[in-house]
Amino acid sequence: MSKKVVLLPGDGIGAEVVREAEKIIAHLSDHYGIGIETETHLVGGASLDAHDIPVKDEVVEACKSADAVLLGAVGGPKWDDYPSDKRPEKALLRLRKDLGLFNNLRPVTVFSSLKDASPLRPEVVDGVDLLVVRELTGGLYFGEPKEITEVNGEETGVDTMRYSVTEIERITRAAFDAARKRRGKVTSVDKANILATSQLWRKTVTRIAAEYPDVELEHMLVDNCAMQLIRNPSGFDVILTENMFGDILSDEAAMLTGSIGMLPSASLGDGTGMYEPVHGSAPDIAGKDIANPLATLASVALMFRFSLGHEKAASDIEEAISAVLNAGYNCKDMSRHARHVLSTSEMGDKILSVI
Ligand code: ATP
Ligand code: MG
């Protein structure tokens, strides 16, 4: 039974890191006889340049009919001044919405060999292994009205925070299901002392939690969570939160590891899942063969686990990443913590050699 994976390299270092991922996918497909076919399409600035649109309908359709999508990154200074409907990032919002990707998973793991890369003391981050479950298709990102209008003769910006019970229920179940396979604790993060959406969030999460008596639930206000992530990050297992809070908290959690270049993500819904590194297109280092591909390779591991149903291939990649880091290899962004500094392509080859 063959599988189809759509590759969307995008812009900047996106193309460089996805090239390494392609090698690993091909290797594991052959090794396990999975029969993965890949298909590459333009997205973001690359698509704007070629087709004057951030993502073509036929690319969205190709993604919908695939088993999984691997995305590099989109954007860069060249497109910064484009009007809002022609921004590279529009491609991401369109894909998330059209693929129904409401469940964004961002695992944050501090590798023991890299605990002194963190801006926090090594003993504070030692053993940190948490998962941010971020709602991805609701809240301030999509709520209408969303506009700049005139109020009392003055320019006024309006965004709308909106969540339905159904939207909260499905992301809550995703978080509790994930917690069951981990250490069995969910921290639901909201601003229930102020926001109506958060009051509905807290009530709904509490009700769904009753279906999971084996999982511990705590509620935490978002400001407190921002503080606890710095004070005692190993106190967290699964953090469940809405779209905007999740965006901010996952960047904060990412920095516990000391590098944005090593964190993967998965975006899941009822259909095709999409996988991408947490970092952006990094225009400052694009084209130099120095970008760290490990976030993308770890995203490929999540793809094998959640979309291709191949846990062994997923753990092969994760174990290879750990082994390579423990042996003292890393890329330029982590050179202070590496005995051997590798280029993007050398890192891809190194991982291949130990899988
Ligand atoms: P975006 O708006 O797309 O998120 P950004 O500039 O905010 O772009 P990144 O593209 O993630 O954020 O880059 C932030 C910094 O981290 C840059 O200095 C970049 O060079 C560095 N960086 C990001 N990803 C990597 C990587 N994979 N390897 C090495 N350095 C990276
Ligand atoms: Mg950024």
Bound molecules: adenosine-5'-triphosphate, magnesium ion
* Global structural class: alpha/beta
Query: Could you name the CATH topology of the largest domain?
Result: Isopropylmalate Dehydrogenase
Please tell me the total number of domains: 2
Task: Outline the biggest β-sheet.
Answer: 10 strands, mixed
Q: What is the overall pLDDT average?
A: 96
CATH superfamily of the largest domain: Isopropylmalate Dehydrogenase
**Oligomer category:** single chain
Q: Please give the number of β-strands.
A: 14
- Can you tell me the overall shape? globular
Describe this structure as you would to a colleague.
The chain folds into two domains: 1-106 and 263-355, Isopropylmalate Dehydrogenase; 129-255, Isopropylmalate Dehydrogenase (3-Layer(aba) Sandwich), CATH 3.40.718. The model has no long low-confidence stretch (mean pLDDT 96). By secondary structure, the protein is an alpha/beta fold. It has twelve helices and 14 strands. The chain is globular. A ten-stranded mixed sheet has the order 2-1-3-12-11-4-5-10-8-9, sandwiched between helices. Strands 6-7 form a two-stranded antiparallel ribbon. Strands 13-14 form a two-stranded parallel ribbon. The chain has helices at 13-32, 45-51, 57-64, 89-98, 122-125, 165-180, 196-209, 222-231, 243-255, 294-306, 311-326, 344-354, and strands at 3-10, 36-40, 68-73, 103-109, 129-135, 147-151, 154-158, 185-190, 216-221, 238-241, 264-268, 273-277, 329-331, 340-342. Helices cover 40% and strands 21% of the residues. Helix 7 (196-209) links the parallel strand 8 and strand 9 (216-221). Adenosine-5'-triphosphate binds next to loops.
